[in-house]
Amino acid sequence: MSVRVLVVDDHFLFADALGSVIRSLDGHEVAGIAQSGAQAISLARTSRPDVILLDHHLPGYDAAELIPRLRALSPGARIVIL
To answer: What angle do CA 22, 73, 9 make, to 5 degrees?
Structure first.
């Protein structure tokens, strides 16, 4: 069983590079890469990640308002704020 990681960051190059690093790790897979809070909510709903790497500031959202929504959609996920 692999650890499913959702990457949420509005800087695409950073998010993509982080995704590449995660893909290179045994036992880990990228559940998705979101560049906005709305995308993060959608992906959390459909992909059920084990870990969410969350940018602190996103267009239209910040971590404080996004975390409760992500927890409701993926209650078992660990959230790491970048």
So the answer is: 40
Q: What is the dihedral of CA 12, 17, 22, 23, to 10 degrees?
A: 100
- Quick check: 80 and 69 in contact, CB under 8 A? no
16 close to 8: Cβ distance less than 8 angstroms: no
CA distance linking residue 13 with residue 65, whole number of Å: 24
CA distances 15 to 64, 66, 67, 72, Å, are 20, 18, 18, 23
SS3 64: helix
Most distant CA pair in the chain: distance in Å? 34
Residue 63 pLDDT > 90: no
Residue 43's pLDDT is 96
pLDDT at 1 over 90: no
